[in-house]
Structures are given as C-alpha cells and as structure tokens.
C-alpha cells in the first residue's frame, strides 16, 4: 500500500542524501540570520541553512511573511546579513565576489514594476545584456528570442509600465531569460498570468533549463508549479521547516494548508468523498491514480 | 446600485503613435447585489473595465451609469468623491495604492477622507488589521516594509474600512498564501451574503468563479465575448479553451473520469457536487460508518 512513499523516500535519499555527496552544489547557505532595520529583533531569516544542486528545480513555499523573498534577496547580496555564509558556485559571497555572483543569478521580482529600467520593452530586456557587455548583434538576437519565448513580440516598442499586469510579468521574465543565468530565481513570477499563459511560460522555462542545465528556484503558492519541481522546500519563520519530493510533501494532505500550499485536488475530493462514506486510501494519489482508484471501486458496485 | 456600460470604448494614449485599444463597444450591466467575476486572458481589458467602475478612467466614448450618476467623456473630475466612497477598489498591484507612513494610517485614510472622525478611523483600521489576518505588530510599520502578501492584505483592509457598497477586486488573492486566500474569499462571500455587498472580481482562478460567482463576464481583445452564470459559461469547455481560459479543477477532473467510463448527467463545478454525483455510483464503506 505504501510502496509509493517508500520508493519516493528512497529516491529522495539517493538524490539529496549521503549517497550522492559529489553532486555539484551550486547554492550552499549556512545559518543565515537577517533582521530588517527597525524590526525590533524579528529575524526574517533565522538560522536558515540549505543547499541546492546544479540543474535542480526547487520550489520554495511557505506562508506570507515566512521569509521566501528575503531568502531570495540574500543569495545575490542584496542584504547586509547579520551572520551566516552564502556560497554560489563555489564562490563565497563577499564584497569582492558580489558582482561575479550577480552575473550568475537572474531574479524575477514579486512586483514587476520594481524591475523595469528601460523606456521600452526592447530596451528593458536588453539592459541586463548591455551591462554584461554582450556585443550588439548578439544582443539584438537574444532580446528577440527572449521576447518571443514569452509571447510579447508585438510589444517591443511599448513602455513596460503601460502594460497589463500579465504582460508586465512576461516582460520581466524575458529580461531575465535573455541573460541566460546559471541560476534563475522566480519570486511568484507567474502569479498574474492566465492559466494557459502560466502553463506556456513554465514550459518555456523547463525547456530552457533542459537546454542549459540552469538551476531554478521558484517561490510559489501555486500547487501545479510546486508539483513540477524536483524538490520542495518549505520555509517557516525564516527557517527550513521541511523538504522533500512533491509526492512526499503532498502526502501531508490537509496539513499542507498550514505550510503555505494548497491541498492537491485529489486530496480535496478524497475528503469530500470520505464525508459521504466512500472508502478512500490514505496515501497521496496523483490525478491519474485517483481516477484509476475510483474506476476500480466503481467496478465493485 | 446597478452599474451599466452603454457603448463604452476606451483608448489608451489617443492621438499618439502608441494609441491602443483598452475597451471596444462594451454593453453590459453589473446588477446590484451580484457577485460578478470578470475573466479573460492577459491584456483582454479586465483592469481597464474595472477602472471605469469608480470613474478612475472615463470612457473615450459611451456612457457608464454608476447608480444614478452618469460618467461620459465630458464628465468633470471634480465631485467624484461620492462614487469613490461607494465603489471601493483593490488594484492588481497593491503597492500602487499604499502611501501612508504606517499601516494603521494607511488603512484609516479612506474612512477619514470620507468624513469619519480620526479616532474612529484609527480604531476601525485596528479591527481591519486583525480581520485580514495581519500580525498585530505591523500596525506602526511602514506599509512598504512588508512582504508581498502582507501588502496585499493592507490594501484590502484599506478598502474594506471604507465600507463600500460595491467592492471591486483586481486579482485580490494573487500573492496570498492558501490560508489567506481562503479566509479572504470567505470574507468577501460573507460581505456579499450578509450585507448584500456587490462584488466585482477579476480572477484567473476558475475554481473561484465556480465556487463564489453568480454572474460571469468574459472579455476578449477589449470586447465583450460572453456573459452568463458560471454554469452557462463552463458548459462549453471547447469555447473556453479556445479563449485561453481554463476550467474549474473539478470539471477537468470529471472529464478525466468520463474518459475512463463514468457517466455524469450534469457538469460538476465544485468538489462537493462531484463527490455527490460519484457517491451515487460507488459502494459505501462497510461497518462502523458513524462515529
Ligand atoms: N523591507 C522590509 N522591512 C522590514 N521588514 C520586512 C521588509 N520586507 C519584509 N519584511 C518582513 O520580513 C518577514 C519576511 O518577509 P518576506 O518578504 O521574506 O516574506 P515572504 O515569505 O516572501 O512572504 P510573501 O509570501 O507574503 O511574499 C516578514 O515578517 C515581513 O514583514
Ligand atoms: N497605461 C496604459 N497605457 C497604454 N496601454 C495600456 C495601459 N494599460 C493597459 N494597456 C493596454 O490595454 C490592454 C488591456 O489592458 P488591461 O490592463 O485592461 O488588461 P487585463 O485584462 O487586466 O490583463 P492582465 O490579466 O494581464 O492584467 C492591453 O493590451 C494593455 O497593453
Ligand atoms: Mg515574498
Ligand atoms: Mg489586469
């Protein structure tokens, strides 16, 4: 009955445990502490330690105010940390490494308006490349490619601040995609896309990840986005509360709500059917397996 | 207070090379006391339409009737205060509506602006902080020194504090954690049911449309594509997919069940509807059924 969970645990240990020490860790943070100015001793990061492998897709979840955005900002040196260490691609984050580190990390902020610098979509997407000293012909090509990937080619000459919410998020993503960073951090970067648009954008990023072995950290409250990750890390009160594969984490059922993620649909339906006195298994079922289970049960009628 | 659009068009930056269509020939009524969901893909004109509901934008042509008040292209920007008080709006990006030095003052601004004495406005703000699930210690913080989801809650609190007749919400749960999302949706529903508040909500979450709305407006390229009840709108999955809009999770799940062999004589929209339809076709638990 629980083979699924056992297999998942096993995979989990193989992937993140002692068995594979030599897998390259691209992000290693240890015991981060951070307190925002004037916050009366409240630690937004409270002894946070975590490590992430190169090429991994990690979803970061947690309730509002749990420290997700603060953690993201700590990685490229946007915060003056009280203590702890950040290591990116074997470089310890410090004054003399911060610029090299920022080149490796592309971050899409929670509010795209905080991200725009260019007067037109085209200029905005080109900005990061210009900074990296990418030659002009290559730059033009990369801008076109990135804008095309997010479906905004018709808007090249438009002012980013005069776009709809979802269009802004697409442009913000294009700006980062164009830079082809080694590490891509998405801070709720698809929260205002329509369902189809979100699917397309995530597929685009998955594809890019495959092409370039990019590492992806996606901060999200969206269950589907979390489900497509290799690993889910749950933050609570500035610390890592728990982590595991999506199947491990989704098995928490109703408890997921307190941890900052919605309950997967099959779990919701299970609860509703349980109330109606229909026998339901306790382990986590994907949509497919839930459909199979219900059909098998139906044939027993 | 009904809000009616008559032949409303809106053009952004008219007369410039950047001129762009926001809305085109919209004719629609948002009935008083309705819970109206406004859906449509990115750039379809949802936020543009919302901003006409409290005259933040005025039509380039046509008329918007807000209760007895008529807004036309010629309407003077003065004397709109009464409308702004009756129609409260939470913007798509909450940061754009926060501005005071502390969370409490920010929430109290609306009521104070509409004549509530300062002490009462501040007291109301304090209540609202709790109501929207903000930690009590944010009260004297700057609203900009908050997390994304916390800012969203402050913006919602500020509008609720004005006690509007019509609550206009542009993707109000984006950025909220799932508990916050549920609580906030529950709060809006309660205001709708208990106080008869009219709710107009832009959302990409078809589950929310199915669970809460009684009226749906679909926009496409600035034009009205369809209106109807959620059941009418979701009855045609192919049409919705063509318009880049999804289906409620339940409806999708029921489609998967149908492919496997289940037969439903009605399209289920919520998990409880589906569970009830399924229960008729499944064996009940044996033994200790009641506890
Ligand atoms: N600029 C700031 N100044 C002071 N405190 C802040 C600031 N930004 C965030 N905080 C506080 O730090 C804590 C962590 O915030 P953070 O933005 O990292 O949360 P989050 O997990 O990203 O939340 P959300 O899901 O709402 O975006 C919260 O208690 C928040 O109030
Ligand atoms: N300030 C502006 N200036 C010029 N054009 C604008 C402005 N705001 C929006 N537009 C354009 O008007 C159209 C409708 O935008 P609107 O913001 O109403 O879309 P929306 O349906 O709310 O989309 P989303 O779901 O992405 O928020 C879009 O094509 C957009 O680019
Ligand atoms: Mg955040
Ligand atoms: Mg919008």
TrEMBL record, chain B:
Mainly localized where? membrane
Q: Name one Pfam family in it.
A: ABC_tran
Which GO MF terms are attached to this record? ATP binding
Q: Where is the ABC transporter domain?
A: 3-246
Name residues in a coiled coil: none
Whether Protein biosynthesis counts among this entry's keywords is no
What SMART domains does UniProt report for this protein, alphabetically?
A: AAA (SM00382)
Which PANTHER family does the record match to this protein?
Answer: ENERGY-COUPLING FACTOR TRANSPORTER ATP-BINDING PROTEIN ECFA2 (PTHR43553:SF27), HEAVY METAL TRANSPORTER (PTHR43553)
Role played:
ATP-binding (A) component of a common energy-coupling factor (ECF) ABC-transporter complex.
State the protein's name.
Energy-coupling factor transporter ATP-binding protein EcfA2
Organism from which the protein derives = Latilactobacillus graminis
């Amino acid at each position: 009955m629980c083979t699924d969970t056992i297999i998942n645990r096993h995979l989990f240990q193989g992937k993140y445990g002692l068995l594979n020490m030599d897998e390259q860790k691209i992000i290693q943070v240890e015991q981060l502490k951070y307190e925002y100015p004037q916050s009366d001793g409240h630690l937004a990061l409270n002894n946070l330690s975590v490590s992430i492998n190169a090429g991994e897709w990690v979803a970061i979840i947690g309730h509002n105010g749990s420290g997700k955005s603060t953690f993201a900002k700590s990685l490229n040196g946007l915060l003056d940390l009280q203590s702890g260490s950040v290591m990116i691609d074997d470089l310890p984050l410090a004054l003399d490494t911060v610029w090299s580190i920022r080149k490796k990390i592309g971050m899409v902020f929670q509010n795209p308006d905080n991200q725009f610098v260019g007067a037109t979509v085209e200029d905005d997407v080109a900005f990061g490349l210009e900074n990296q000293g990418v030659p002009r012909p290559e730059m033009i090509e990369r801008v076109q490619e990135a804008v095309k990937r997010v479906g905004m080619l018709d808007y090249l000459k438009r002012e980013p601040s005069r776009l709809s919410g979802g269009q802004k998020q697409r442009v913000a993503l294009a700006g980062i995609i164009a830079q082809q960073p080694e590490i891509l951090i998405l801070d709720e970067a698809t929260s205002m896309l329509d369902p189809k648009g979100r699917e397309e954008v995530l597929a685009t990023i998955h594809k890019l990840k495959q092409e370039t072995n990019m590492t992806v950290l996606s901060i999200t409250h969206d269950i589907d986005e979390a489900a497509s990750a290799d690993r889910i890390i749950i933050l609570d009160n500035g610390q890592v509360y728990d982590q595991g594969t999506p199947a491990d984490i989704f098995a928490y059922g109703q408890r997921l709500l307190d941890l900052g993620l919605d309950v997967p649909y099959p779990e919701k339906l299970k609860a509703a059917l349980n109330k109606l006195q229909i026998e339901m298994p306790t382990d986590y079922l994907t949509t497919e397996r839930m459909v199979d289970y219900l059909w098998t049960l139906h044939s027993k009628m | 207070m009904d809000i009616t659009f008559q032949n409303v068009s809106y053009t952004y930056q008219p007369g410039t090379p950047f001129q762009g269509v926001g809305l085109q020939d919209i004719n629609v009524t948002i009935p008083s006391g309705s819970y109206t969901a406004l859906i449509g893909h990115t750039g379809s004109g949802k936020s543009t339409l919302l901003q006409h509901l409290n005259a933040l934008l005025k039509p380039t042509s046509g008329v918007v009737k807000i209760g007895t008040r008529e807004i036309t292209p010629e309407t003077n920007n003065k004397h709109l205060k009464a409308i702004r008080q009756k129609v409260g709006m939470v913007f798509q990006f909450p940061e754009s509506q926060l501005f005071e030095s502390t969370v409490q003052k920010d929430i109290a601004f609306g009521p104070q602006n509409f004549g509530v004495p300062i002490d009462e406005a501040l007291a109301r703000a304090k209540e609202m902080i709790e109501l929207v699930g903000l930690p009590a210690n944010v009260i004297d913080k700057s609203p900009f020194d908050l997390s994304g989801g916390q800012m969203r809650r402050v913006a919602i609190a500020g509008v609720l504090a004005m006690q509007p007749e019509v609550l206009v919400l542009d993707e109000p749960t984006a950025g909220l954690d799932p508990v916050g999302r549920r609580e906030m949706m529950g709060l809006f529903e309660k205001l709708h049911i208990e106080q008869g508040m009219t709710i107009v909500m832009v959302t990409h979450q078809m589950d929310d449309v199915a669970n809460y709305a009684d009226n749906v407006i679909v926009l496409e390229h600035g034009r009205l594509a369809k209106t109807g009840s959620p059941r009418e709108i979701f009855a045609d999955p192919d049409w919705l997919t063509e318009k880049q809009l999804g289906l409620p999770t339940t409806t999708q799940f029921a489609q998967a069940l149908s492919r496997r062999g289940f037969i439903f004589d009605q399209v289920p929209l919520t998990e409880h509807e589906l569970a009830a339809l399924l229960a008729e076709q499944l064996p009940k638990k044996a033994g200790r059924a009641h506890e």
